[in-house]
Design brief:
By secondary structure, the chain is an alpha/beta fold. It folds into three domains: about 90 residues, MurE/MurF, N-terminal domain (Udp-n-acetylmuramoylalanyl-d-glutamate--2,6- Diaminopimelate Ligase, Chain: A, domain 1, 3-Layer(aba) Sandwich), CATH 3.40.1390; about 230 residues, Mur-like, catalytic domain (UDP-N-acetylmuramoyl-L-alanine:D-glutamate ligase, 3-Layer(aba) Sandwich); about 160 residues, Mur ligase, C-terminal domain (Protein-Tyrosine Phosphatase, Chain A), CATH 3.90.190.20. Helix content is about 35%, strand content about 20%. The strands form four sheets. An eleven-stranded mixed beta sheet has the order 9-8-7-10-6-11-12-13-14-15-16, sandwiched between helices. It has a six-stranded mixed beta sheet with strand order 17-18-22-19-20-21, sandwiched between helices. Strand 3, helix 2 and strand 4 form a beta-alpha-beta unit. Helix 8 runs parallel beside helix 9. The longest helix is centred in the middle third of the chain and has 16 residues. It is globular and about 70 Å long. It starts with a helix and ends with a helix. The relative contact order is 0.09.
């Protein structure tokens, strides 16, 4: 595609050089740039993303065919100068890939916790109903049962996002399901995506290192719902829906800012889709599903009250699309689970080991509360907090671990460039403030050793919760990223112990 065609998409633009140069793709990183690509110089975000303008020369030497920038870079290469490079990249990427989201019904999910599980539930329902599905989130991109990309970035940059959507379109996907983060919304990554339905799971403390305050965090998520179009149509295919958690106060704000038709779900407040008579066990969760389309019993193979909320959101999405209630129930009941979400590690041992992605105060609270419901022996919790991220949540999570656990092993998560010992001390402070005896917890910066210590300590009937990383197969350290999988480490520790305690 010629650069001119991309530049003409923008009303306010200044061009320099040959606008007839062919563009073969987009890049924001010189190390992955391929010859012929358009290098986009987005401005920096303190602590999160470097300004790309200083790398323009390096990009040209690496083979960039042209540049998009917000200021003069004084290089002998075709350049498109725009007031907002992020916006320009989103517009250009949509056009370059042929506006792929317009060829499917796209369902987006935002919220602090529950996005991945709810996305898998929605996918399971629509797949069971006979539709071709695509799923994009922090476990990669999946079309039907086939994983087509393993990039675990949640809400990709616009050019990668549109490329993934184009793969879904080329596979004739009917329903695309996609996780949408607050940072992705704030950075304009999903601009140009034509969402059919916007789903809100919940909002609790997280990402304050980026947003600063909970109000700004809520406003970032509000962008998702406010962008659902402002027109109405008699054509059912053009209708828009907002699926909101009635039990979360933030939903009141999202209802005000969205022009979409609102469907609510909840447990404690009256809603369009509700769960009553909830029964929690170690084998799964049962409840009575009460909806505007009827009532039916439901039995999930996943544990925890939080999964009831996730299921209700999925039900509301499917009902909005006219999927029969019995088909919805069957689709949810056959779902075995989601990678790294209360995932059982079974090597024949006589204690239970669960791996969960809980990495926020609310997520850890929910996971441990679920475990407490069916624990017969002691609860041993292994967790840490990410480095160079919201420091204020560390002591809070320490207190939560103390509240539910009989023993806690505080360890590293993804320490990044921060000293692991400082992170552990911050968490330990919460344990101390909760009045936890010294013999009820330990600090072990090496996550492998921490998991091993928990397994060594476990007795018959105990439950170990390894929280924070879930499905992740890596650990980000100061000197690089290494392979690390909590599930693999737990299996190895159990085998070393001898399978049975």
């Amino acid at each position: 595609m010629k650069l001119r065609e991309l530049a003409e998409l923008l009303a306010i633009v200044r061009t320099e050089g040959d606008m007839d140069v062919e563009i073969t793709g987009f890049s924001m990183h010189t190390r992955t740039l391929r010859a012929g690509e358009l290098f986009v110089c987005v401005p920096g975000i303190a602590g999160f993303q470097e300004d790309r303008h200083p790398f323009a020369g390096e990009a040209v030497r690496a083979g960039a065919a042209a540049l998009v920038a917000e200021r003069d870079v004084n290089l002998d290469v075709p350049t498109v100068i725009v007031p907002d490079a992020r916006y320009a990249m989103a517009v250009m990427a949509c056009h370059f890939y042929g506006y792929p989201s317009s060829n499917m019904k796209l369902i987006g999910l935002t919220g602090t916790n529950g996005k991945t599980t709810t996305a898998h539930m929605i996918e399971a329902v629509f797949a069971h109903a006979g539709y071709r599905t695509g799923l994009m989130g922090n476990i990669g991109t999946k079309i039907g049962s086939v994983m087509v990309e393993t990039d675990m970035i949640n809400t990709k940059e616009p050019h990668k996002l549109q490329a993934s959507l184009s793969i879904m379109r080329d596979h004739r996907t009917e329903y695309g399901i996609m996780e949408v983060t607050s940072q992705g919304l704030d950075m304009g990554r999903v601009l140009g995506c034509e969402f059919r339905t916007a789903v809100f799971t919940n909002m609790t403390q997280d990402h304050l290192d980026y947003h600063g305050t909970m109000d700004r965090y809520r406003e970032a998520k509000g962008l998702f719902f406010s962008r659902m179009g402002n027109g109405f149509s008699s054509d059912p295919a053009k209708r828009k829906f907002a699926v909101l958690n009635r039990d979360d106060p933030a939903s009141d704000y999202f209802r005000k800012v969205t022009p979409a038709q609102v469907l609510t779900y909840g447990v404690t407040r009256e809603a369009d889709v509700m769960a009553k008579n909830i029964r929690l066990t170690a084998q799964g969760t049962g409840f009575e599903l009460v909806t505007f389309a009827g009532t039916t019993p439901m039995k999930l193979r996943m544990v925890g009250a939080f999964n009831v909320y996730n299921a209700l959101a999925a039900v509301a999405c499917a009902l909005a699309e006219g999927v029969p209630l019995e088909v919805i129930r069957a689709g949810l009941e056959q779902l075995q689970g989601v990678p790294g979400r209360m995932e059982i590690v079974d090597e024949g041992q006589d204690f239970l080991v669960l791996v969960d992605y809980a990495h926020t105060p609310d997520g850890l609270d929910n996971a441990l509360a679920a475990v407490k419901q069916f624990a017969e022996g002691s609860i041993i919790t292994v967790f840490g907090c990410g480095g160079n991220r919201d420091r204020s949540k560390r002591s809070v999570m320490g207190k939560l671990a103390a509240k539910y656990s009989d023993y806690v092993v505080v360890t590293s998560d993804n320490p990044r460039s921060e000293e692991p010992e400082r992170i552990l001390e911050d968490i330990g402070r919460g344990l101390e403030e909760a009045g936890t005896d010294e013999n009820r917890y330990e600090l072990a910066a090496d996550r492998r050793k921490a998991i091993s210590r928990a397994v060594e300590r476990a007795a018959p009937g105990d439950i170990i919760l390894i929280a924070g990383k879930g499905h992740e197969t890596y650990q980000i350290l100061k000197d690089g990223t290494v392979h690390f999988d909590d599930r693999e480490e737990a299996r190895q520790a159990i085998r070393h112990k001898g399978g049975k305690a």
